[in-house]
Amino acid sequence: MKRFLLSLVLVFLTINTLFAQRDTEHWIAPYYDSYGGYVNMLYLSTDSITPFDVTVYNNNAVVTTVTISKGNPQTYKLNNSQISTGTASEAFVVGTKGLYLKATKPFYCSLRLAQDIHGEIITSKGRAGIGKTFFVAASPNKNLTSIHNFTAGVLATEDNTTVTVSWNTPPVTNPVTPPVSFINGSPTGNTHTFTLQKGQSFILAGSGAQEGNREGFIGAKVVADKPVTLTNGSCNANFSFINFATGSDPVLDQSVPVDKLGNTFAMVKTRSTVPSLNMEGGLIIATEDNTEVYINGATTPIATLNAGKFYRIDETNYATQTTPGGTHSNMFISTTKNVYLYQFIGVGASDATNGFNYIPPLNCFLPRKIDEVGKINEMPLGSGGASITKSDLVVKLNILTEAGATVLVNNNPPLPSEGPFPLTGNTNWVTYGIPSVTGNITITSTKAVTAGINGGYSSAGYGGYFAGFSSIPFISKKTGECVPGIVLELDDGYETYQWFRNGTAVAGATANTYTPTQSGNYTVKITMGTCPPVTTPIYKVQTCLKLTTQAINACSAKVITPAFTSSTQSPVTSTLQILTPPTKGTAVINPNGTITYTPNPGYLGPDTIVYKFCGDNAEFTDCEQITLNLTVVPFIVKDATITACWYDVAPYAYFDLTKAKVSDYDPVTKKYYRTLADLNAGINEITTPDNFPSTGGTVYVKITTAEGCTANAKITLVPIPIKKSPVLIDQYICMDARTDLDAGPGYDSYQWSTGATTSGIRNVGVGEYSVILGKNGCFLTQIVKVKKADDPVIQSIEINNNNATVTATGGKPPYKYAVDGTANWQDSNTFTGLTRGQHTFYIKDAYNCTPVAVEITVPNLLNAITPNGDNINDFIDYSELAYKENLTFSIYDRYGNTIFTGNKFNNFKWDGKHFDKKIVTGTYWYHITWNESNKNKTPIKYTGWILVKNRE
Questions:
Q1: Which fold has domain 793-857?
Q2: Does residue 4 surpass a pLDDT of 60?
Q3: Cβ count within 10 A of residue 106
Q4: Which of 112, 151, 114, 154 is nearest to 27 (CA)?
Q5: 3-state secondary structure (DSSP) of residue 574
Q6: Average per-residue pLDDT for the chain
Q7: Which fold has domain 859-948?
Q8: Is Chloroplast one of the keywords (predicted)?
Q9: Do 859-948 and 793-857 have the same topology in CATH?
Q10: Cα–Cα distance, 531 to 525 (Å, whole number)
Q11: Which fold has domain 546-632?
Q12: CATH no., domain 640-722
């Protein structure tokens, strides 16, 4: 390569994948540098308009913080010791090289390394780049030189990560192919296992001067029990057709785990201009046995590979596509099983411009936009390693998208000469080639899209793909770390989303972001176009460490039982830790998972313990850290007096002994006894202290703290009698009358059902009333009724000739009587001198309510008849009274014998005969009765005598 510098010949070299997966976390493993002199620089960009910080870590320590936003990509120059080594003693050992980047919003990250005549870019795939199983890719070098190598750097993301690397045994050849050899390592056999903590790394590297290392480590398998990231390739290398070529360039990229691979790919030819050098094409590495490889839709495989074996695709396999807009070369690759595909790149006519791009598989779940790829045409080649743009830079943009898509680059459609071009062997996809782009790039498509670049300037070049490093979309963390606070997201270009927790759909969670409210295994089922629905890999969400502050009192040694404040898990004894011991006593973890706190002798006052414990769910472990503020206090008890209301209807007052304030210490246990002797003997405990019947006196209580402190106290019981008002009694009034109610004096408060708060209420009518009487804090409810006075009833009226006697009952005597009007009332119930005809009798009782009236008829009573047939006084006729209810008419002789009974058959008429014979002349007696048609059916009775004179 020095000869190129001396002659100032234009040299192009290609640099691998420029930009990577957009994510909130990125990891970059270290690489082994056999050439030296590189400047290593991070390039960071995002689509977020809101600025945010990206924190860079090495070996779990903060290196720097960089603020980025859309349109404002940033760089950071690294110390080479943080990411690479050319020192043999730092290979094949556990080290601390490697980077971890973290932010609250997703961003793109790449590592660019350059020096005067060489350069490379390693792109981080974010979470898509970490996993547990990988196959190593490196350059199939054509010559032996110590500036060539293979390198595979592994970086752990979690503590106690065990990694096993195995590589192929060399085939039996003549001459014999030597085995792989390592810089600073001599493992036995073809495997090696090592353990890493989070942030630690391990570099496996082999010198290109050894024949067994030219191709022997390609296809090596890396298996970890926890997620790791892998940087693989060669630094430097040469894969051209020229044997013993002296040109070289770094060929590096970040790998992806096997669970992110696919089996259909497209490549667009880059910028090599000499096909005979074979600087273009690709490298396929199989992950399973019997993997068939097909090119451009051929029906016959170009190769069949077993796991860990590789195939070099030659440049001649590119297909030329000609459209009215122009000419373009691309290639369609398909395999029967998932594989790695790395695209080889060359620039110009040089064999030294080697490039190495991991190619993402085609699938309709690729993103719909790539936003934003920053500083496309910059490299750390300025003074002091500054990032600069060369004036002769030419960068080509290659786009792969589904057929029929509308594509925009920085909001402008490509020219017809730039595409779309068909893809031989696959009509579902098309490609674009835009010959010159600069600055910051945003690519959008109405369908799945990925894109890459290749290009160069006088002594360096670069290229690579921007997105799609997982064949299945995966969940990334938008913000936060754990519940509460973590927000998960997927790209927002898919058609539908349904989030799941532990396999169960989360109701209403159908957006591209979701905020978990509890720990669990989260997945998302998404759909896009004609693709069958796909479910993302599991994203484990843990609960944050819960920080709790509690306060308790202690009177002596106190046992503290750790318990979760919100989690349903049970604390595990082995996880219990005292983070901050007390300063005024001691705290000891007991075998049963409790903590015993013992204050220093004689100390009273505050003290603090901070302890932490975790739960029993192995997969989603809840942990809580409690700051316990203790107050060491003396245990003091005091006698107390309590009161209870004693109602006049009960033989006792009922006391709640538990309300007696005998101690401020908490928690305590209390036992109650009727006598001090019972307390001391521990017998006859009061079993219902909250409802203890008593007429007054004293009881005793024994108080015991959780720490075992005990003391006794006396409780005095004071009953408060309260009785119903003796003067508040039921009253009777007329229906339309009003009255007053009064409970009388002697109470502290009154609350009537009418709302009144005085002792009495005035002018109330018939109804039921209540009053709450209060005295000395006791209250009782007394009900009083104002009733309608019963009306008196005219029980009967007896009429004797022109006299009437009214008999009354009911109501409240004495009664008043009146007839034919209510102007003249009399005390007597007898009326004399009544005329024949209708009369109304009135009565009222002592309540003086509306009078009760009964209207009766005083009939025309005859005192003599002469039944001789002269039609003068021949009959007694009461047929006009026949309409009266229950009318009776009877005639008696002086001995009481019935002579005649009137009825409807004789029409209540008597002709002075008995059994149709005339009776003897004489005086006879009669009575007439009926019921008036009022509601009380008042009985009326007329009595008198009649003279019967029979004439012959």
A1: Immunoglobulin-like (2.60.40)
A2: no
A3: 21
A4: 154
A5: helix
A6: 89
A7: Immunoglobulin-like (2.60.40)
A8: no
A9: yes
A10: 12
A11: Immunoglobulin-like (2.60.40)
A12: 2.60.40
